[in-house]
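Hypothesis: this fold can be encoded by more than one sequence.
Test: take the structure tokens below, design a sequence, compare later.
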């Protein structure tokens, strides 16, 4: 039997996956990650929900374990995520002093995180998921209430830039392929941030999909986002086999899933080279996926529960090879 080729050996761009510290200690898991991927993103252990303690102090043990793995195995790290509406930790929420001290605390947090992984981290999601689902505007959060919409972007991006001038700083959002109003609002936000002089360096497109999604949507979205000329991170791809109408049989769902992965690789590889920041899949094996916790029969990733490559994996390999021979 011919062993499947390491994805990273076929990709001219960084190819990443999301990981958790506990799984990285399993040799089979760690080896599979290091064999195929050139970059890892912490699935949740570099977020405030883990790092910021109720008393406002920070714990870096798991983030350090993930960064240590990357360093030992010669992989890059992608930082995820500094500010997220879904994380309003008590350590910040209870700060009821002046705006200045809230802002100072946030700067201190961003500086601590970003400077700690300087040199290893290629970039950071500075603000995650800022756009409302219906595209009618931007989400409210602890951060916008305390610092304002413009203010919270400015504070976080400027602190991150100062802490690691070489890291590419991202906004990142999802459902851009399926919700035109959301994509439009996201693009208006990017335009505004650039106009305001916020040091935005890249655009994240999470690409959480489902197998019944219409072909072409991923390609059109990446193309639209690439119009700004900034690096693009296809940052959290997975393809649910159960979301949507569930009309397809299991085999049909897996075939459609494989085609969507191939489309994403092709669309990403078709971007100008300097805009190909990284292509990241949101987890390694099906059983590692957050989607599996929502529906146990979902199979959204490139490797099955046992770590064996699926049709989606072969589709990615073939798409990378086609691209290689075309270029
Ligand atoms: O996959 C992540 C899951 O394990 C965590 O419990 C959850 C909360 O931290 O976040 C999930 O990842 C999300 C990512 O950070 C942002 N985009 C959507 C992802 C899936 O919910």
């Amino acid at each position: 039997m011919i062993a499947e080729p390491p994805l990273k050996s076929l990709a001219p761009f960084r190819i990443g996956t999301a990981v958790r510290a506990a799984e990285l200690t399993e040799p089979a898991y760690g080896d599979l990650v290091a064999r195929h991927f050139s970059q890892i993103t912490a699935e949740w252990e570099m977020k405030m929900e883990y790092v910021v303690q109720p008393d406002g102090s920070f714990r870096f043990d798991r983030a350090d374990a993930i960064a240590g793995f990357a360093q030992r195995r010669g992989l890059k790290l992608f930082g995820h995520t500094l500010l997220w509406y879904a994380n309003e930790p008590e350590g910040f929420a209870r700060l009821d002093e002046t705006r200045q001290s809230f802002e100072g605390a946030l700067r201190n947090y961003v500086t601590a995180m970003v400077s700690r992984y300087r040199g290893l981290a290629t970039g950071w999601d500075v603000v995650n998921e800022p756009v409302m689902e219906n595209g009618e505007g931007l989400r409210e959060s602890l951060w916008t209430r305390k610092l304002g919409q413009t203010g919270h972007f400015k504070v976080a991006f400027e602190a991150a830039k100062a802490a690691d001038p070489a890291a590419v700083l991202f906004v990142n959002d999802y459902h851009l392929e399926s919700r035109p109003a959301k994509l439009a609002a996201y693009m208006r936000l990017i335009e505004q941030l650039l106009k305001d002089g916020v040091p935005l360096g890249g655009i994240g497109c999470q690409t959480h999909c489902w197998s019944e999604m219409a072909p072409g949507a991923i390609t059109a979205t990446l193309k639209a986002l690439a119009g700004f000329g900034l690096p693009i991170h296809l940052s959290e791809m997975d393809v649910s086999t159960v979301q949507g109408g569930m009309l397809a049989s299991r085999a049909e769902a897996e075939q459609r899933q494989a085609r969507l992965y191939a489309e994403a690789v092709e669309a990403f590889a078709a971007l100008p080279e300097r805009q190909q920041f990284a292509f990241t899949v949101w987890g390694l094996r099906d059983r590692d996926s957050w989607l599996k916790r929502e529906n146990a029969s979902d199979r959204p990733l490139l490797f099955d529960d046992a770590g064996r490559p699926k049709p989606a994996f072969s589709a990615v390999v073939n798409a990378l090879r086609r691209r290689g021979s075309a270029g």
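The radius of gyration is 19 Å. Residues 193 and 305 are 41 Å apart (CA to CA).
Hypothesis status: open.
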